Amino acid sequence: MQNFQILRYTSLSFLISEELDIDMDEIEKEKIAALPSQLLVTTICHPMEYAKVLIQLGYEPLPPRRSTTLFGRPAMILPNVFQYIKFIKTSDGFFGCYRGLSARVLGLIASSQLTSKVIYAMGIDLPEINDPPNIVTDEEPKVEDYIRLGRRDMIMHTASVIVSYPFHVVSVRMMASFIGKEQDYSTLFGAIVSIYRDDGIRGFFHGIIPKLLGDLTCVAVTGVLAYYVNKYLVKTKDLRYYTVPLLTFVTSTITYPLVVVSTCMAVAGCSLSAGNPPNMPKYPSWQACWRDLLRNKQHKRGSSLIFRYYIAPIAAMQ
């Protein structure tokens, strides 16, 4: 789903970049028109996202079993995402699989309605915001066009994250409450009150730095790669239309560990048992979280939802 969130903005920019005379009102109309399909996909896929968040937090209630890798080597394999969802359903019922969905829906709505308003409030007035360069053409790519479009994507994505991230934290903590069965986070209103009681306003932005760092790195690297791919490998407009979405998918897998860090920091140190020992170490900063996950080879938790091989943390092996 993280890939989907980034693809949502880059694909929108590509659609917009085909029309040179367009303003922010038209951009808002494009985003609003796409909202129903986004809400539908989010709702359908939420149980998988729910299980993925719990996996990113390191919660593994089902034991691994002996198996082999694709190359025949012996390995311990963890239950796949569908078995994980079945476990959640057995515990909380069908509707329990949709814990945290309400906050995610509100985040999508807020992003579609308020992104441009945040850009205006920040006093950003660049020509490419209302007039994005057209890079989906048969002509020779111009590096300045890619720089302008990349800058535009970064601004819009940053504004969108600022608007929607508080709802993301609410959603993650509601899902994380499954681990300790805390009732304070069983409702949307209860989760908001609990977050504010624990950490004040800043609690709604825990983990936003690695989130932005990962997303903006993905946008920047994708832009650089797209320029060179379109310049030397892809020569036609029809094929160039797919360059950025495909490259975004690839680069987002590289920055995925920062998604895990952001998810962990969204709950680290809060009143949930999921964010405290023994379920999670106390992290003084997101950098400490990053180092710990990297040292224990847990920085890719949730990147694969079907073939999930068990990797014992260093502390467990010592």
UniProtKB/TrEMBL annotation:
The chain crosses the membrane at residues 212-229, 249-272. It is found in: Mitochondrion outer membrane. Solcar repeats lie at residues 144-232. The keyword Repeat applies. InterPro entries: MCP_dom_sf, MCP_transmembrane. It comes from the Eukaryota. Its main location: mitochondrion. Keywords: Membrane, Mitochondrion, Mitochondrion outer membrane, Repeat, Transmembrane, Transmembrane helix, Transport. GO terms for cellular component: mitochondrial outer membrane. It is a multi-pass membrane protein. It holds the Pfam family Mito_carr. Belongs to the mitochondrial carrier (TC 2.A.29) family. This is Uncharacterized protein.
